[in-house]
């Protein structure tokens, strides 16, 4: 089987090099990834670099990830070894059909090309974007588009990011059991790019009457965003000046916080927990509190060969901080997901921690407390900010 997989991947590589690749599809999945059905792979150009764009099609959502070419070929081979039984390579030169049969035989066949038009390497998602660029006062105010709805060249990345966030939030909303999305709060809303786009999607695409609020301590941003909301006629969207921790209302159904610095993300999660929000979605940024703890206490563990390097220490602080956040969410009855939501070519702050309210499990709570205690001891952490806010530790 390995031999045919290697040959299949060589054909893909050749098609990429000849610029004849149309697409690769992997199907008949029998592996362990829950709800995964297919993977579709295309060649795309991102900032003039060729990448393989993988669309992972799950039962209820699609996730797109871009890989460097070598990494992409390797990944295709691994997915074929680990569970996809059928694969098709379509190129303008010829098609290739790979099939692993039940009796262990593997077939690799070359066929006549079914598509002869040269594929475009452009990111062609424009037509499928949830946030269309035309006739949106807020996109003009935010300097993403001109009055005619043309996305400015220097705002292409931002526009794609906004759409990507909304796509992710849209599938999280659909996957969760939220019945009444009456209020969304965006903590540390900044200039409000996502807040506006989410409001637009909820009201104008889903037809909901959700109240959306941004919380931000910079008065200038709050004033600007309130002005833009008024210009757009978004009656249910408002921005409030204040700190996240001072936010008193406890009727949030979905809480988001994107790149709220350091412990501001903990404050945001805490507010979500206090409200028993159905959905808590945070993209953390800078993990100084835990990094300081690790550096201060210098716990002696097997990882010191890594953490003597600043960059690894930073990554470790990030994983430990967000890992404990996920555990605390789980403790309070949230099903958790942690995933990369945007290519690190756009921003290194690309991890999303998601909590979907599901129900408390007392047995699991005991285990979680132990897991947190052990983790803290191992890494030399006296406290984690969210743990303190939620009074899981003094
Ligand atoms: C990096 S910006 C992100 C803005 C926006 N969420 C986005 O992703 O475009 C972080 C914003 O959070 C605000 N912020 C940070 N800590 C905060 C706190 N504790 N309370 C209120 N706002 C806060 C900052 O003023 C800043 O505008």
Automatic annotation (TrEMBL):
Instruction: Kindly list the biological process annotations in GO that this record carries.
Output: methylation
- Keyword Methyltransferase annotated: yes
The cross-references to CDD domains, in alphabetical order and at most eight, read: AdoMet_MTases
Q: Which domain of life is it from?
A: Bacteria
Per the database record, which ranges form the Methyltransferase domain? Answer: 157-292
InterPro entries, sorted: Methyltranfer_dom, SAM-dependent_MTases_sf
Q: Which UniProt keywords apply?
A: Methyltransferase, Transferase
Q: Could you tell me which Pfam families the record lists for this protein? A: Methyltransf_32 (PF13679)
Any GO MF annotation of the entry = methyltransferase activity
The portions of this protein that span the membrane are none
Question: What protein name is recorded for this chain?
Answer: SAM-dependent methyltransferase
Annotated organism of origin: Flectobacillus rivi
């Amino acid at each position: 089987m390995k031999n045919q997989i290697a040959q299949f991947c060589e054909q893909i590589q050749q098609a990429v090099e000849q610029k004849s690749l149309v697409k690769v599809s992997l199907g008949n999945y029998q592996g362990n990834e829950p709800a995964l059905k297919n993977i579709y792979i295309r060649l795309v150009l991102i900032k003039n670099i060729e990448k393989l764009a993988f669309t992972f099609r799950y039962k209820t959502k699609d996730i797109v990830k871009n890989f460097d070419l070598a990494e992409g070929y390797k990944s295709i081979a691994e997915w074929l070894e680990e569970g996809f039984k059928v694969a098709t390579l379509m190129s303008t030169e010829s098609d290739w059909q790979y099939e692993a049969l039940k009796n262990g035989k593997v077939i690799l066949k070359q066929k006549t090309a079914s598509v002869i038009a040269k594929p475009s390497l452009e990111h062609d998602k424009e037509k499928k974007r949830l946030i269309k660029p035309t006739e949106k006062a807020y996109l003009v105010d935010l300097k993403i588009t001109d009055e005619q709805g043309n996305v400015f060249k220097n705002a292409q990345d931002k526009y794609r990011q906004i759409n990507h966030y909304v796509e992710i939030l849209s599938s999280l909303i659909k996957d969760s059991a939220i019945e009444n999305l009456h209020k969304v709060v965006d903590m540390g809303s900044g200039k409000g790019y996502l807040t506006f786009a989410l409001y637009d999607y909820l009201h104008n695409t889903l037809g909901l009457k959700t109240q959306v609020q941004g919380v931000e301590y910079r008065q200038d941003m709050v004033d600007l965003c309130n002005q833009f909301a008024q210009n757009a006629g978004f009656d249910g969207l408002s921005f409030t000046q204040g700190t996240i921790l001072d936010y008193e209302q406890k009727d949030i159904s979905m809480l988001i916080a994107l790149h709220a610095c350091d412990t501001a993300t903990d404050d945001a999660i805490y507010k979500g927990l206090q409200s028993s929000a159905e959905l808590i979605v945070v993209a953390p940024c800078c993990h100084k509190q835990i990094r300081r703890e690790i550096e201060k206490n210098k716990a002696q563990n097997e990882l010191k060969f890594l953490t003597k390097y600043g960059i690894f220490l930073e990554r470790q602080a990030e994983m430990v901080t967000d890992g404990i956040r996920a555990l605390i969410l789980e403790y309070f009855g949230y099903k958790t997901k942690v995933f990369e939501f945007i290519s690190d070519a756009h921003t290194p702050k690309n991890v999303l921690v998601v909590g979907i309210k599901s129900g408390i499990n007392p047995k699991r709570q005991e285990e979680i407390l132990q897991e947190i205690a052990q983790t803290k001891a191992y890494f030399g952490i006296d406290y984690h900010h969210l743990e303190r806010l939620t009074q899981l530790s003094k």
